[in-house]
Amino acid sequence: MLRFRSLGSGSSGNATVVEGRSGALVQRLLVDCGLGLRQLQARLGLAGLALDQIDALFVTHEHSDHIGCARALALRERIPVWMSAGTYAALGEPEFDGLLHLACDGEAIDLGSFEARPFTVPHDAREPLQLRCSDGASHLGVVTDLGHASDHVLRELAGCHALLLESNHDPELLEASRYPAFLKRRVGGAYGHLANAAAADILRAVCHPGLQCVVGAHLSAQNNRAELVQAALAAAMGWSPSDIGIAHPLSGTDWLSVPLG
């Protein structure tokens, strides 16, 4: 059984717990850790978890809203951490006291009750990776930072039964915002963040009968609204807007089960 819970998603900090159960074996992967340690502890508590119940940590890229307290958490709880060589270099190659594992595109990470397979994405970071998690029967795509969907991204998301998918901004709201021109170009560029329509296009490309759970993530607080995300993604899936989940910047989501394939 595979389930996941966003602890918060947005520029204020990103963290997602993916949990796999196989018989008596329960393993939990924390995808990104863009929060302070106390904040992380509090949000895990709301999810019914403690810091020492995280078994592994995966950092998608070096931006502060994703790296957060990752090193402090890993060292304090002796948690193995995975990231790309590029992300590690961008962080200045800090000491992880033997806990660091370098992740590569397409090289699956065996977590016992499930595996996490990293894949490269187009984003303005050194070597960003996102994840496809699977227990063999259920497949979850976690894709929170990318400027556009490459063919490689679409291949990695094909056949997923649940998606935590970035839907960052509405172009009109972005253009009308108080963001400086350079930041508007960065956010809306090919290596920035997904607009609602681009996220909807991804769903149209990978939609299949087994895809039954879609959650919009990494919404811009200034340049998007949940109802715009739900309308765009629901139209792509042929669903009602209320069928689309939203990962709140501060509270994330409830626990969500990944449907069986």
Structure write-up:
- The protein has 261 residues and is an alpha/beta fold.
- The protein has a single domain, classed as Ribonuclease Z/Hydroxyacylglutathione hydrolase-like (Metallo-beta-lactamase, Chain A, 4-Layer Sandwich), CATH 3.60.15.
- 28% of the residues lie in helices and 25% in strands.
- The chain has nine helices and 14 strands.
- The strands form two sheets. A seven-stranded mixed β-sheet has the order 6-5-4-3-2-1-14.
- Helix 5 links the parallel strand 10 and strand 11.
- Helix 8 runs parallel beside helix 9.
- The longest helix has 12 residues.
- The protein is globular.
- The N and C termini lie close together (11 Å).
- The model has no long low-confidence stretch (mean pLDDT 97).
CATH T-level fold name: Metallo-beta-lactamase, Chain A
Mean pLDDT across all residues, rounded?
97
Structural class: alpha/beta
How large is the count of helical segments?
Answer: 9
Relative helix content:
25-40%
Terminal CA distance reads 11 Å
Strand segment tally: 14
Gyration radius, in Å: 17 Å
- Named CATH architecture: 4-Layer Sandwich
Stretches where pLDDT is under 50 for at least 5 consecutive residues are none
Strand percentage lies at 25-35%
Number of domains: 1
| Backbone shape | globular
Which H/E pattern describes the elements?
EEEHEHHEHEEEEEHEHHHEHEE
What's the arrangement of strands in the largest beta sheet? 6-5-4-3-2-1-14
